Amino acid sequence: MFEVAIGVLGLLIAGLTYKKTYLDRPKEELEHFILQFKTTQSTSKKVREQLQLYAEENNAYEQEMFGGITVRNYLIMMEESFDKNLSDDLLKEVLNVKPSKLLLISMIESLNKQLDALILVRNLIDSTRYSS
To answer: In this prediction, what percent of the chain has a pLDDT beyond 70?
Structure first.
């Protein structure tokens, strides 16, 4: 009898853990995701504007940035990436899907990587601008 009670208790704990991990809407992760999304979105816009301004001021559209990619092409890639990965419509779609905690964590990590790359570009622009 005691073994059955422990078995039932174990199943109950496993069920609650599964529900909490995969089925509950993770409020904290969702708030963190929205904040990270908006931050990355805003930073992307600002970096794109800075790069556009730098290119205009220095007639640098054909200047190479990374591995053969010109400033002009990088601006185009940034615009396409923004439309695909950082648009308000995408945010609405993601929120409508009601993603799991694990999916939100994965998306937050992806946004962190995008933000790091944007900061790297911003620093490159700043170093180029001030070294001229």
So the answer is: 86
